[in-house]
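Shipment paperwork, digital attachment
Item: protein structure file
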Amino acid sequence: MFPDALLASNASASVKPLTSTDGKKSSFQKLTDHVVNVFPDCSQQELLNFMKIVKDRNGGTLKGLSFNAITDKIHDLLETMSKKIFFPSYFDNIDISKSFRSGTNL
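Attachment content:
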């Protein structure tokens, strides 16, 4: 959905196991399934990258955020990325990846 270059700086997320040893889904897998269902037009890898951005902005953890809060933050990121793609001249002098890292909105 989005150019790889826009997501590449955040693509090196460490991934936890998706299921526990007893075969039950981990919280991370449940969250991933939820996000994939909410944003069916995005690939799982794109959504994992956005989840990593949300995690980074939240002090390196997703703890304390509800599924809905995480989904809302991903929606905000998708909206910002869409504006970057459809209105590139507005963003010519803005480093969008820096804005993601600092948690500021454009």
